[in-house]
């Protein structure tokens, strides 16, 4: 496929067919994704491919904590898990919130689930001393994650970047034997889409790109 076509049609896929994603195709996806940049070219990414249904069921249960707060806050008109806006949901409201099954279904119905980790011992977090949530360390892992999704699309497969399991990272690490010093960055269910989108909707460039200053003229 043309690169721009891949970029414009790689949407979030949560519904999959029963088609398998063979190991040779998965290796090809990862073989191409590995050329993503990372800080100092240290390549601190590790990938765990989950096919065992029991393990995936256990992982899906660990997503409930993050998903419950997400759903409760959204229903309360809040931006879920936003670091700048304190949660207004009461503990009682949170406990009473039911988590829709479809939030964890992709982990069970996809052909494979990739758990992407990053070695914190090799990332460069230039924002670690700033008075805000750190984001810079993600530059050493999320280009790889997106490359996986682009490569999957090129192979006729799809997936979605999920992070709800990270709310229970210690338990995820225990489940999968992830050593100290590594962070769980993403959980990617991959498989054959039931429906392949042909067009995505995004804001035009003029709405998010400016010249010279944040409040400058639109590009």
TrEMBL record:
InterPro entries: Nitroreductase, Nitroreductase-like
Signal peptide residue numbers: none
Source organism superkingdom: Bacteria
One Pfam family matching this protein: Nitroreductase
Nitroreductase domain sequence ranges: 12-192
The keyword Oxidoreductase appears for this protein: yes
Keyword Oxidoreductase on entry: yes
Keyword field: Oxidoreductase
CDD domains noted in UniProt: Nitro_FMN_reductase
Family from the record: Belongs to the nitroreductase family.
PANTHER family: NAD(P)H NITROREDUCTASE YDGI-RELATED, NADH DEHYDROGENASE_NAD(P)H NITROREDUCTASE XCC3605-RELATED
Protein name per the record: Nitroreductase family protein
Species of provenance: Mycolicibacterium iranicum
